[in-house]
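Researcher: I'd like a structural prediction for the single chain below. Treat it as a standalone chain; there are no partners to consider.
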Amino acid sequence: MPEEDVYLAEPSGPTAGGAGVLVMHDWYGLLPHVRSACDELAVAGLVALAPDLYDGRTTTDPEQAEALMGDLDDAKAGARVDAAIADLRERTGGGPVGGLGYSMGGFRVLLQATTGAFDAVAVYYAALDEGDAASIHCPVRLHLAEVDEFDSPEFFGGFIAALEAGGTEVQSHTWPATKHSFANRDVALYAPKQSGEAWSITVEFLRDHLLAATG
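Model: Treating it as a single chain, here is the predicted structure.
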C-alpha cells in the first residue's frame, strides 16, 4: 500500500521480521505516540505497521477528533485496514500477525479479530457487544480506564465474560486513576505511570503470542 497511508517500523537482524503487529490509532489520528509504539515494537522484534485512516490529519482536541471520526468513510477505512493486514502478512512471510488498537482503533482491531485476521490482540479502552465475542478466538489483552466516559464497566465486563464463556483466552486490567485516552501521551488525559506499565505488559503479551509461534 502507498507509503503515505501507513507508518512502518521493521526490526533489524537476520532472523527478525517473522511476526508483525497492526497498530490502529484512536480518533485523534496517527499522532507521534502511535509512531513511537511502532518503533518500540520493532525494537522488540516485531514488524509494526500503522495505517493512517485520516490521510495525514491529526488533532489533540476531543471535539475536532470527534469530527474527524464522524467524517471517516467506513468503506475506505475498512479497505485500508484490510490492505495493511495483507501487507503485514507479506512482510512476515505469512508469519503470525497481531493487532494493537486504541479506542476507535481498538474497536476496529476487535472487529477484524472476529474475522480471524489476528493471532493475538491488545486493545486499550475498547470492546464489542457480547454477541460479537463468540467470533473472537485469538488471545485478547484489554487495558481499561478506571473512569471511561464512553462505556460503562458493565459493558466491558459483559464483553470479557462473553469471551471467557466462549473459551477465548482473555486478560484485562483496569488502571487506577485513569480516564479514557490515558495511554495517548499526546493528549491531556495521558497518565505516564499507568501507561508505561500497561505498555510493558502489551509488548510482553504480543512477543509471547507472536514471536513464540515463529520458533
